[in-house]
Amino acid sequence: MTATTPFQGLAAVSPLLTRLAAERATGALLRDRGTLFLEDGRIVHAESPSTPGLDVLLTTGGGLAPERWNEAVNEAGATRQVGRFLVDSGGLADGELEICHIAAIFDAAFFALSPGSGPSRFRRGATHWIGSVRSVPAAAVERETRRRRELLDAVWPYPQLDTAPVVPRPAAPGQIVTARQRALLGQADGLRTPADLAWVLGRPAFHTLLDVRRLAAAGLVETPHTRPAPVLAAPLPDWMTQAQSPDVALLRRLRDALEASL
Question: What is the maximal distance between C-alpha atoms in the chain?
Answer without folding.
Answer: 89
